[in-house]
């Protein structure tokens, strides 16, 4: 189902069982949960799927090592429950989307034998809590062994290191996979569709007024239940329902920078458990690059926040403390900022002290709001939100079916299937692997499209992405803007912004053919990518 078909369904004159507002991790998860229970489901997102917070994560599927430390030291049941839930959901996540998620190994340097015992004991507990869904055992390694494993690190002040395992994933494509899988089960999901008003009858919510961002068309949609899953914007939707509603969120910003792959070994990541200001930092190989982050600063709610030079400098200062070759500002290939919706808790000292738990609230008019949480627990959060809606509105729904549900792209996925893909279509190994990892068992469809329509050329010579993926994104993955493709369907804009700008004309030509853009629209889309990438993280000393 493409975007046009979804819009046609959204305009049909009949009530839906449930309308989900928000196309990030939680909203797409709610739509999938509802659709697989047999509910007639609609989902709308004002921008693109995962354009905000849900594509700006650290790309980790994790139980939360730092939450476990707070749980033990502070005897905090909330944090402990968060870790147990996260570890359970981590296992389900990797099992249900194996083409987009996999296990990775992380290392934590320790500077004393006391710290070594403390960290190792904590990570052993972390492994035990995962139970049968565990990813492997933690281990202590000597300084010499640690240096061989991670030669880029400066371990002169360490006695050794502890290694453990967590998960990694592609967040933007995961959200699209959730939305498409929901559609596969009957949901109508559309991006670039904004809710401009909530509709009430006798004081009870009965639907919403929608507006298509591309055409300006506006129409009403009826729904028995409305779920607000808009992340950092949740309080805004709550006030659309009740202007007197009090905020339930504190918002923090977290930025990440991308460095060249030479700054870390391919198969090992770094976890810095506690900085001087009490934060956790990660340096993780991702998509042939190294991702480093994140910050945690109080922020205002805004669309498309930018990474500040101050935050970039903060991350670089820590990278220089741990790496033998200190990265310069010119080594930053890309930087991006995301907003985290943290549930308000009086008495907490800072945003890093707030638990990444979630809250479900129902207003007097019936608006169900779910907010807070983290990517790893999207499935459990969605299950709880749909349970709440079903109970509140007596919806005729079956039991939750997402525990064992494989997402689109994963049903016939074979871990080493890229080899057969390369042989079948004459692809170089790098391109075959990229297609396989981004599209899973749909990779052959993309390659066949490319061969049939002459779209096998690379978008950029330095990256293994081909023109056929642009066409596939427009036809099958609801990409409606050039940035939808270059930043979220493909990660080029998150990896190297200069290369995204260079690839924009070729990608725009394919999008224009697919979506019927005229020359003016095509040039406007190219300009939006060029200006957006330049604005988000200008190199020091260069024009923004």
TrEMBL record:
<dbReference type="InterPro" id="IPR006076">
    <property type="entry name" value="FAD-dep_OxRdtase"/>
</dbReference>
<dbReference type="GO" id="GO:0004368">
    <property type="term" value="F:glycerol-3-phosphate dehydrogenase (quinone) activity"/>
</dbReference>
<protein>
    <recommendedName>
        <fullName>Glycerol-3-phosphate dehydrogenase</fullName>
        <ecNumber>1.1.5.3</ecNumber>
    </recommendedName>
</protein>
<keyword id="KW-0560">Oxidoreductase</keyword>
<feature type="domain" description="FAD dependent oxidoreductase">
    <location>
        <begin position="17"/>
        <end position="379"/>
    </location>
</feature>
<dbReference type="GO" id="GO:0009331">
    <property type="term" value="C:glycerol-3-phosphate dehydrogenase (FAD) complex"/>
</dbReference>
<keyword id="KW-0274">FAD</keyword>
<comment type="similarity">
    <text>Belongs to the FAD-dependent glycerol-3-phosphate dehydrogenase family.</text>
</comment>
<dbReference type="InterPro" id="IPR038299">
    <property type="entry name" value="DAO_C_sf"/>
</dbReference>
<dbReference type="GO" id="GO:0006072">
    <property type="term" value="P:glycerol-3-phosphate metabolic process"/>
</dbReference>
<dbReference type="InterPro" id="IPR000447">
    <property type="entry name" value="G3P_DH_FAD-dep"/>
</dbReference>
<dbReference type="Pfam" id="PF16901">
    <property type="entry name" value="DAO_C"/>
</dbReference>
<keyword id="KW-0285">Flavoprotein</keyword>
<dbReference type="Pfam" id="PF01266">
    <property type="entry name" value="DAO"/>
</dbReference>
<dbReference type="InterPro" id="IPR031656">
    <property type="entry name" value="DAO_C"/>
</dbReference>
<feature type="domain" description="Alpha-glycerophosphate oxidase C-terminal">
    <location>
        <begin position="400"/>
        <end position="521"/>
    </location>
</feature>
<dbReference type="InterPro" id="IPR036188">
    <property type="entry name" value="FAD/NAD-bd_sf"/>
</dbReference>
